[in-house]
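To fix ideas, we quote verbatim one protein's residues and fold tokens.
>
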Amino acid sequence: MTIFLQKNQQGFSLVEFLIAAIILSVGLLALINLQLTSIRGNSDSKEMTRAIFLAENRMEQLKNTPYVSLGVGTTQDPNNPINGQGQSGGIFTRSWTIQNYLGSNFMKQITVNVSWTLKGQSHNANYQTVVSR
């Protein structure tokens, strides 16, 4: 049996393989970093959604309160800190302020503020509306 060797054999050398492996590794590391950033963003969005729900919920309760029962001043939620359902024992702090709107005795401005700390950073969500007699 005779084996013939060609002078110009085609194929990959070890150096070419290593360069391709490095390029692939850099690409995969970038994808992993992108995935981690996405996960962190989703977590932050989840907490923001809960805070907005808490603010909207309190705002609706205040808007459905008779005008004469809306006392001027700032009130802290008695259950603070609260969880995403408004029950005590969470990371959110909710407060609301009612004041006369532009000095009028016929309109009141309601501001609901929900604040929380996540990963060492303070966040808050505010809602404002004006109600009249």
Observations:
- The chain has a mean pLDDT of 87.
